[in-house]
Amino acid sequence: MRPRSIVPILYILFLMLPIYWLVAMSFKTTNEILGGFSLFPQEWTFDNYRTIFTDPTWYWGYFNSIIYVTMNTVISLLAALPAAYAFSRYSFLGDKHLFFWLLTNRMAPVAVFALPFFQLYSAVGLFDTHLAVALAHCLFNIPLAVWILEGFMSGIPRELDESAFVDGYSFPRFFTTIFVPTIKAGIGVTAFFLFMFSWVELLLAKTLTAVQAKPIAAVMTRTASSAGYELGLLAAAGVLTIIPGAIVIYFVRNYIAKGFALGRV
Amino acid sequence: MRTQNQRAWFFVLPVLVLVAFNALVPLMTVVNYSVQETFGDNRFFWHGLGWFEDVLRSERFHAALGRQVLFTFTILIIEVPLGVAIALTMPRKGFWVPVCLVLMSLPLLIPWNVVGAMWNIFTLPDIGLLGYFLNNVLGIDYNMTQSPVAAWVTVIVMDVWHWTSLVVLLAYAGLISIPEAYYQAAKIDAASNWAIFRYIQLPKMKRVLTIAILLRFMDSFNIYTEPFVLTGGGPGNSTTFLSIDLVKVALGQFDLGPAAAMSLIYFAFTLLVSWLFYTIMTKDEQ
């Protein structure tokens, strides 16, 4: 082991400490948590997890979150792919301004827009649907997707497009059978970021839903206030929100390193 | 050369429609509120730029903006050098690369309210791991709900915990795109580690670091959920950042006019700083 490895090791330890504490809490009984400090759970209990897996309000929270995050990732990618292609290959009237305008939408303070979003989505009759949250998250996810994908596409030589057209490929066929597979890594990295930002956002998701599409994070905040001090339950719910993210990272782990290197990000 | 092609607008159209629907309509609603006065009976009166003047003169806004700038500046000063240092010391190939990447990405994928709740549990004075350790092992009097200094330090450490990995990921991506030949050339010239960093690695990372700093600036300037869950803006107003203050005005007191004016000023400020920074950093490329 080289001495310089100490820096990443210490950093990862620092990252893991609060996560360890959350996991440890989730296996403790409420009495043990409030009774005093203990480094490990003294009497292991799975009650907290059992509550979550048997109560529909809880487990539907997870399904709701996963549904709208998946919808958002698909919508954002489908819309951003052609747009990123246009920005990387063509120059057209107002392209630079349009690109900067897209980026400015990431800067809008989401807290400010909560109320107008509620009014807008109520007016179009989408309030409390998964689609509403998926569409609302497009506000910050589509600009990001266009930005990352444009970088990857610009790294692909233009000769690829030209030779395909010379060979008689139509544009849609070229795009779907040649171009998209070529930037697979870029799409993987983009999907990772889209999933990440949609999964972690709570304010808009909470504002736009009431019962039918309530995200897990909203279930957690409501439980925290109504059920008093059920820290163990809260911790178990928190641990379960980390798992989908961990699965996604596992799938894109090779793309993150290689993918970034290809694109100019 | 890129082809001149006006049909490209059709390619951009879906993005344009989706983003415009989400951005322009709410923005116009906010602009609409910002120039009107209401007495809560759903009737609105033209108020001109009155709210903007009020907000710009209000000490409360100045205080929140001051706290916000201090917070964003502090976390950038810590996260960017730390992220670069970690990226430099990370392994470049082999088994440990994906392990490091996966473990380091974990905090990025935890919902923001869970991050707040997690740090709350972690720092509880008597039963939290950190809180217990500081109070009972090191003997430091640490209680976030009473001491503004403790609350500030906790919010900053939480943000470093949460977001440094983003800088690491981007800086690492920049580092591994440097061809091996550059390092060989540096070796032949017997360049010091510092020289390699200063003249090879740092210039190659400039672009990704620009993106990292921009993203961190924009997101930390809009920070809401994590400090809200962790401290609720307290003790007192000590960790009431701009977004928290805004939500208090808009939804707590239902003062839509001042809240809307405040948010437009806030948005304009973010836009201006981001644009200036972006222009300065990309000046050499044009």
From TrEMBL, chain A:
CDD domains the UniProt entry points to: TM_PBP2 (cd06261)
Cited InterPro entries: BP-dep_ABC_trans_perm, MetI-like, MetI-like_sf
Listed transmembrane segments: 7-27, 66-87, 99-118, 130-153, 174-200, 231-252
Pfam families the UniProt entry points to: BPD_transp_1 (PF00528)
Cellular localization per UniProt: Cell membrane
Record GO biological process: transmembrane transport
Topology class, membrane: Multi-pass membrane protein
Boundaries of every ABC transmembrane type-1 domain copy: 62-252
A GO CC term assigned to this protein in UniProt: plasma membrane
Keyword line: Cell membrane, Membrane, Transmembrane, Transmembrane helix, Transport
Chief location bin: membrane
Cross-referenced SUPFAM superfamilies: MetI-like
Family of this protein: Belongs to the binding-protein-dependent transport system permease family.
Stored PANTHER family: ABC TRANSPORTER PERMEASE PROTEIN, MALTOSE TRANSPORT SYSTEM PERMEASE-RELATED
Name the record gives this protein: Carbohydrate ABC transporter membrane protein 2, CUT1 family
Species annotation: Tropicimonas isoalkanivorans
From TrEMBL, chain B:
Keyword Amino-acid biosynthesis in record: no
Pfam families in the record: BPD_transp_1 (PF00528)
Coiled-coil regions listed in the entry: none
Chief location category: membrane
TM helices/strands, residue ranges: 9-35, 69-88, 95-112, 118-138, 150-173, 256-278
Membrane topology per record: Multi-pass membrane protein
Entry's localization field: Cell membrane
Annotated InterPro entries: MetI-like, MetI-like_sf, Sugar_ABC_transporter
CDD domains: TM_PBP2
Cellular component GO terms held in the UniProt record: plasma membrane
PROSITE patterns in the cross-refs: ABC_TM1 (PS50928)
Gene3D superfamilies, A to Z: MetI-like
Key words, A-Z: Membrane, Transmembrane, Transmembrane helix, Transport
Ranges for domain ABC transmembrane type-1: 65-277
GO biological process: transmembrane transport
Tagged with keyword Transport: yes
Family indicated by similarity: Belongs to the binding-protein-dependent transport system permease family.
Protein name, as recorded: Carbohydrate ABC transporter membrane protein 1, CUT1 family
